[in-house]
Amino acid sequence: MENSYWSAAIPFVAAYRQRDSSETPTLQMLKKLYLDKVDFSKRELDPYKSKAEDVVTTILKLIQKHVRQGDPKINEEPIGTGSGFEGVKVKPEVEFDFMVPIQVRFRQIIVSDDDHNVPACFGLIQIEESGRIQFQSATVWGRDTSDFKEKFCIRFGSHGYVLSAGKIQRWFQSMCARTLLELAKHFPGYNFRFRTSGPARTLVFDWLGKEVNIDLVPAVQYEDAYLVAKMTSRLGEAAWRFSFSTHEKAFFQSLSPNYCYFKCLKILKYLRENDKKMCPTSHLSSSCPSYYLKTAFLYQAWRSDQDIWKNEDLEDRVKNLLRYLAECMRQRHLQHIYKDNTNLLKEVSSTTLEQIRLRLLYIHNNFDSVLQYHLQY
Fold first, then answer.
1. Residue 109: its H or E element
2. Which of 129, 158, 210, 362 is the most buried (most CB within 10 A)?
């Protein structure tokens, strides 16, 4: 089996050696992989992004008809986040993430520094214990606060009532579901439906021959970041996850597209996602979230000079990122880019980290053969 693979690969590699002699065969393969299988170009993605923004804005306007007095106020201006808005979307799925800010007055945000039971990168949104709860809108809810607490909060130990990520999520999803018939009238011929994907409910529709997936998540602003209604298994629906996606998007927008920053991260994301093709039991695909790759990349891009990110340096940058990630797995430490005291790998088992490390090193040490495999299959 292995001999037949290499027999087929020999003429494949030879074809690259006949190309522009100023480029190495490896760089040529990287460029071909990027163009053929990795890159979701701006020209291809922008129409889908515009349509997604149009659909989401329409949904939020329609929701206003169903929000009751005393419910949190929903902002009609969503915030596009994630790879689709950072310029690092990888083929083939058409997916977009939006945070939908909601406004609710809270007493304080309790983080891991305040209570060791709260996981890193999560927070509890503590609601006022006395008096009436008021929202940052013209309408003040006149009923007793116990109604709000029953509908949207849960008790959490000595912290009293905290805003429930689960209850807010379910409430928001029910608001979205009520708009489906009206949404179809605004977009005749579209078949809108919801799909459950993990803790989220994703709006799905078909357009221009592709399935478009839109993940909408309620968010509460806290200082210069957001807390999103994505729960953790340890505290269930009590905890909200911190999101620094607006900072990350701004950083990506500051990078020059004329260098290989975007190519480097997108290729690494592609290799992670598709490593299961080479190794069905790959922990790199199953247990290494894309956010680990993004965090490692942000550190590399932030701390290095732009001169080492020339397009001809693409091979070095991808390999360097593979080595850096492997070393993070060995040390069991990958620091959160915006929360200095948070180690993203703290809760991951040493066995899983070792398996991820070995796959990263395998790709690094067999780089050409890995590229050849992905170009062929």
1. strand 108-110
2. 362
